[in-house]
Design brief:
The structure is a single chain. The chain has helices at residues 2-27, 32-42, 48-80, 82-101, 106-120, 124-133, 140-165, 186-205, 219-222, 231-258, 264-286, 295-312, 319-345, 352-380, 385-400, and strands at residues 173-176, 179-182. It is built from 15 helices and two strands. The chain has a single domain, classed as MFS general substrate transporter like domains (Growth Hormone, Chain: A, Up-down Bundle), CATH 1.20.1250. It is mostly helical. Helices cover 75% and strands 2% of the residues. The protein has a two-stranded antiparallel sheet with strand order 1-2. The two termini are 28 Å apart.
């Protein structure tokens, strides 16, 4: 009973950390076009093309530094334990939120995004590895699905905080050196406060899982990635999924602002719907009996649904239909995401941290390419990014999924 209670506290703290970090990611989504525009004007950048370029780069630079550091943190967590890496990541996350809130120039916003990428890559994959350590094989899909719920609810809470607190009527404008405190600072300070609360809980109550340690003679083997059959395919599929998600997130903010003439709160509602659907459905899909619908079929179906939503997205301009396509896209993503991470966690129990970190790195590749591809296509035609990414998802569904040979047993 005591051990069960201890595991509950561990899971609660870990999932709270994942939630807060994803809230910090989501808080900027509805605000980024307006925040970047304001800082760009201060820097003398006036054209829409240049501003949209900065939006794309600011979105991509975060996962780029996740790509550089995720595997490093994952390997370290396999050697020295998960807790210290999570504490370091949460500390950096709080610092990043404060810097973002006080940014008075584009260069400061870039610095904050770089720090965010570095430190968030020490929280999400290490947290998922922690959950895998304290969960047996039969329950792992369900627990990792709850990690997906934490991610999705963070994506819900972030845009709500960002979209509504940024429109507050607080008349704050204080400049101290290169720091600026105004109404745009409020949502980031709110998320930083949540980060401090979770950081205290982590230091106070979280206990490291007992990890299986290899002999000294096997240490060189432990540091090498074991690319078993199907692992690379899983990594590539994860990368494509993240490319589609981040392309949509980046372009939707711009498209909704320019073409649909949405307010920040309306943009935030779109992200909230996406996160809410994924939060509700991921545990349901993770509990599906694989004897009724196989993992491969779930992946095929999920990619097909998401592709259909993206292809159909630009056919309507009415908000109700736009939100309907967002919900359909989220249903597809919810069917794919928990199955992918569970499959990767089963490959090798002694390298869970490294393997999940490798998935995070491949996710980062998709997160880097998605905004760049989306903004580049948007400069040619505002309608192009969505059907193009839909076609990519259809290609994955047709070409990659039937060839997948990694299964859950």
């Amino acid at each position: 009973m005591i051990e069960g209670r201890e595991n509950f506290y561990r899971k609660f703290i870990i999932l709270s950390g994942v939630f807060v970090v994803m809230t910090g990611y989501g808080v900027l989504l509805p605000v980024l076009p307006y925040y970047t525009e304001r800082l760009a004007f201060k820097s003398g950048i006036l054209t829409d093309e240049d501003i949209n370029l900065h939006i794309g780069i600011l979105t991509s630079i975060y996962p780029f530094f996740q790509l550089l550091f995720a595997v490093i943190w994952g390997k370290l967590s396999d050697r020295i334990g998960r807790k210290s890496l999570i504490i370091m990541g949460l500390s950096g996350f709080v610092l990043m939120q404060i810097l973002t809130g006080l940014a008075a120039s584009l260069s400061m916003l870039y610095l904050a995004r770089i720090l965010g990428g570095i430190f968030s890559s020490a929280v999400i994959p290490v947290s998922n590895a922690f959950l895998s350590d304290i969960t047996d094989r039969t329950q792992r899909r369900k627990v990792l699905a709850w990690s997906g719920v934490a991610v999705s609810t963070g994506v819900i809470a972030g845009p709500i905080i960002g979209g509504y607190l940024a429109q507050s009527n607080l008349h704050i404008y204080t400049k101290i050196g290169h720091l600026l405190l105004d109404k745009f600072s409020i949502p980031f300070f709110a998320v930083a406060f949540l980060g401090v609360v979770v950081l205290i809980l982590t230091i106070w109550r979280l206990k490291n899982p007992s990890l299986h340690r290899l002999d000294v003679s096997q240490k060189t083997i432990k540091t090498k990635m074991d690319f078993k059959r199907g692992f690379i395919t899983l990594l590539l599929i994860s990368s494509v999924l993240q490319l589609a998600i981040t392309l949509f997130e980046t372009v939707f903010s711009i498209y909704a602002k320019d073409i649909l003439v949405f307010e920040p709160s309306q943009i935030g509602l779109g992200f909230m719907l996406c996160g809410l659907v994924m939060a509700i459905l991921q545990p349901l899909f993770a509990n599906l009996d694989t004897r009724i619908i196989s993992i491969n079929m779930q992946l095929l179906t999920g990619f097909s649904i998401a592709a259909l939503a993206m292809v159909a997205f630009t056919f309507w301009a009415y908000a109700i239909y736009v939100y309907a396509m967002i919900v359909l896209f989220a249903i597809g993503g919810a069917m794919v995401a928990p199955n992918l991470i569970a499959m990767i966690s089963f490959i090798d129990k002694d390298h869970i941290g490294s393997h999940i970190a490798m998935q995070t790195s491949f996710n980062s590749i998709g997160q880097i390419l998605g905004p760049i591809l989306g903004v580049w296509l948007y400069t040619f035609n505002a309608m192009w990014p969505f059907p193009v990414v839909g076609a990519i998802l259809f290609l994955v569904a047709i070409s990659l999924i039937p060839k997948l040979r990694v299964g859950l047993t």
